Predict the 3D structure of the following.
Amino acid sequence: MTALNVDTPAVPKRQPPRLMLAEPIMTMRGISKSFGDVKALGGVDVTVYPGEVLGIVGESGSGKSTLLRMMNLEDTPDTGSYNLVLPGHQDRNLFDLDRFERRMLRAHHIGIVYQNPHLGLLMNHTSSGNVAERLLIAGNRNFAELRERARQSLAASEFPTERMDATPCELSGGMQQRVQLAKAIALEPAVLLLDEPTTGLDVSVQALVLDTLKRLQRDRAITMVLVSHDLGVIRTMADRVMVMRRGLVVEQGLADQIFQDPQHAYTQQLVHAEL
Amino acid sequence: MNIQVSTPKTSALVLRVDGLSKQFEMHHLKRTLFAFENIQFELGEGEFILLKGENGAGKSTLLRTLYRSYLPRAGHVFYHTREGIIDLASAADVDIAMLRRREIGFVTQFLNARPRVAAEEVVAEPLRQAGTPHAQALVEARRWLDAFGVKKQLWAAYPSTFSGGEQQKVNLARALILPQRLLLLDEPTASLDRDARRALVDRLTELKAAGVAMIGVFHHPEDVADLIDREIHLKAIRVEDGER
């Protein structure tokens, strides 16, 4: 058998008729980014709807984490626009915000959990302190209230609150991810970004973290964007799936359609390679 | 294959399938697999269509295409929602997702339960998504688990550890706990014991009387003989040979 050519054009993007049963909470249009000669993103569109989990899957270097950093306003694309529907917020391209405005928007409306806890946590602060820091940035100054809200957020992330004064260095990988999650959801963000949140955890801990995420999504209807190269994680969590390759979206659809009836040669290769 | 079945206009239309075709492009084999072509039929409120045909005839593929787990190659699936008419063959993914939560159910013999979620929580989930308070959803879930013969001591256990038959009962309770407008039934009675089959038929009878439109494949069609309004016969697939 000859090698499969997966360098075929993306599955054509349809402009389907809409019943308008839901309006987007997040819209990104034409996001392009190059690092030197390397094109990380080549004009990506993303639409996210309230309460859903959008899974982004693709091999290493496909641009999925770069895209997530754009969503977290950590980076600015060469071209493209970004809008979040927030109460009382003007309809403007969020990439036009200055550094302070971005920080405030992130603190109030965007939560993120990184694969590497060192990126999301202050390792020499207590777990409750890490969560309280997010509340402090948002303007809360009452110590007792900060501590209580941090405790509540840790409990919602199924973190054993009797250990809330331990530093992340003293915790297991799964517990560190729960602290990141508690910090991310402390202010009930409009969207929760998850960058390979279970990669590197052992299988049983991974399942527990995914259960927590699923429960939070069900109970609080938190909108999530989940980046993972693990198809099992995406299959478990996502309502819709975007498949990325070399900075482009080659296919997107409902999760069951992507897994049961993938259209693009690369998606078929990816799905068939799942253990 | 060209199937045309007209619907007696005795009830409000729920589904009008027009020229629906499905093929699978298998890139790694450089083959195209034709599942069905130019299927046409209508389904009204409270109607029940039985899909018949030998193994591989495309019965389950048709159901999955109507549900949009499979993308059709051509044709239309005009679904009369509570908000208006939409072509399920080309509708936006988000609209399909919303309709699945509110109006369109798919009942299969396979349970896709997450690990470490109790059976009663699995069954209650559609109600919770629809806004029912947790405690009330659990009461209803337990009622349906009981109706399908799942033993009480299993309600708080994880279905991933259950036998195939018990998993299927959990799956049925979950799929049928919310009254839908359109139900797609893919061999829901396969591997069920007689009491559970009876409970399922009782529930389907209730739903049909309430106006739910149903189309399905049944391992034991005699179970639902009293419900069937019409039958559609599908013929075997053909494989297009040669490299593309």
